[in-house]
Amino acid sequence: MDKIYIEGLRLESLIGVYDWERTAPRPLLVDLCMHCDLSRAAQTDNVTDTIDYALVAESLERVAEKSSFELLEALASAMLDALFAEFDVQEATLKLSKPDILANAQNVAVQLTRGRP
Ligand SMILES: Nc1nc2c(c(=O)[nH]1)N=C([C@H](O)[C@@H](O)CO)CN2
């Protein structure tokens, strides 16, 4: 299956388990791999025949801005729900990173893989 990637998408969301995390939005990073059929767009060279990754990025940004989950898992799942609701994606893997949150680690992340419901 063909794939479209969005890598290192910077977002902000109010997210975290602890009170000190819930006073301001925090920077997050998304890496997304979408399985989809790109054969028509490869022939027509027309963005309306494919999944417009710019629109996908905007959708993920909207989910992040509007939500206030505690866990990365919950936000990643909501992002995938929006992706399948709005775009013709067959399967997707989304990695959601929260950099610089642990004193002794560069990054923490969760990764979810889901098929079209
Ligand atoms: N599996 C997870 N573990 C933790 C999360 C999370 O989202 N998923 N979040 C936290 C805190 O919010 C963390 O960012 C600060 O300690 C802890 N563990």
UniProtKB/TrEMBL annotation:
This is 7,8-dihydroneopterin aldolase. Pathway: Cofactor biosynthesis; tetrahydrofolate biosynthesis; 2-amino-4-hydroxy-6-hydroxymethyl-7,8-dihydropteridine diphosphate from 7,8-dihydroneopterin triphosphate: step 3/4. Residues 4-114 form the Dihydroneopterin aldolase/epimerase domain. GO terms for molecular function: dihydroneopterin aldolase activity. InterPro entries: Dihydroneopterin_aldolase (IPR006156), FolB_dom (IPR006157), GTP-CH-I_C/QueF (IPR043133). Its EC number is 4.1.2.25. Belongs to the DHNA family. Gene3D superfamilies: 3.30.1130.10. SMART domains: FolB. The keyword Lyase applies. PANTHER family: DIHYDRONEOPTERIN ALDOLASE 1-RELATED. SUPFAM superfamilies: Tetrahydrobiopterin biosynthesis enzymes-like. Catalyzes the conversion of 7,8-dihydroneopterin to 6-hydroxymethyl-7,8-dihydropterin. The keyword tRNA processing does not apply. Keywords: Folate biosynthesis, Lyase. It catalyses: 7,8-dihydroneopterin = 6-hydroxymethyl-7,8-dihydropterin + glycolaldehyde.
